[in-house]
C-alpha cells in the first residue's frame, strides 16, 4: 500500500446548517494566535484559534456535535482535542507533524468550513520537504490522516479571504 492512501478526503459531508452556525462562533472565539511547542511563533504558525473546552454549555454543545460528526465517519479512537481555526490573509502553518511525545495523537482530522478564499491548500511533504500531495479543500469536506512522522504537512499562506476550519486529533 502506498502510504498516501491513508490520507482520506470526504467532500461535502459536513451539514451546511452546522457550517452557518459554527463560523460565527469561530469569528467570536478565535481572538488569539495559537502556539507551537515553543510558544507563539507567527513565522511558523500564523493562525488565530480557540481550543474548544467544556467551560460553557455552548462549548459542550459544539464539542458533542463535532464529536458525533467525526464518530459517524471514524469511531475507533478517543478525541483528545478540538480547535476552531481562522486563517486570515497571510495565515499559514509551516511543515509539521501532529504527534509529539507530550501530545500523543494517532489520527488528525481537518474539517473545512468554507472555500471562498485563495491559498490555504493542505500540502503533504516527504521528509525532505518535497511536495507529494496537495489538497484544495472544498466547503464541507473532511480530511483524515495519520498524525505520525510519515505525514508532514502544512497549510500554505492565505492570499485572499479567510479560511475557517476545525481540527481535531484522536488518540
Question: How would you portray this structure in words?
Answer:
By secondary structure, the protein is an alpha+beta fold. It contains two helices and 14 strands. The protein has helices at residues 16-29, 57-73; strands at residues 8-10, 32-33, 45-46, 48-51, 79-87, 92-96, 107-112, 118-119, 122-125, 131-135, 141-146, 153-155, 158-160, 163-170. The two termini are 23 Å apart.
Task: Describe the SSE topology.
Blueprint: E1 8-10, H1 16-29, E2 32-33, E3 45-46, E4 48-51, H2 57-73, E5 79-87, E6 92-96, E7 107-112, E8 118-119, E9 122-125, E10 131-135, E11 141-146, E12 153-155, E13 158-160, E14 163-170
Antiparallel strand pairs: 1-11, 2-4, 3-6, 4-5, 5-14, 6-12, 7-11, 7-14, 8-13, 9-10, 9-12
Q: What would a concise description of this structure say?
A:
The chain is α+β, with helices and mostly antiparallel strands. The chain is 18% helix and 36% strand. The relative contact order is 0.26.
Characteristic key phrases:
single chain, 171 residues, 18% helix
Structural class, by secondary structure, is alpha+beta
Mean pLDDT: 92
Fraction in beta strands: 35-45%
The biggest sheet, with number of strands, parallel, antiparallel or mixed sense and barrel status, is: 7 strands, antiparallel
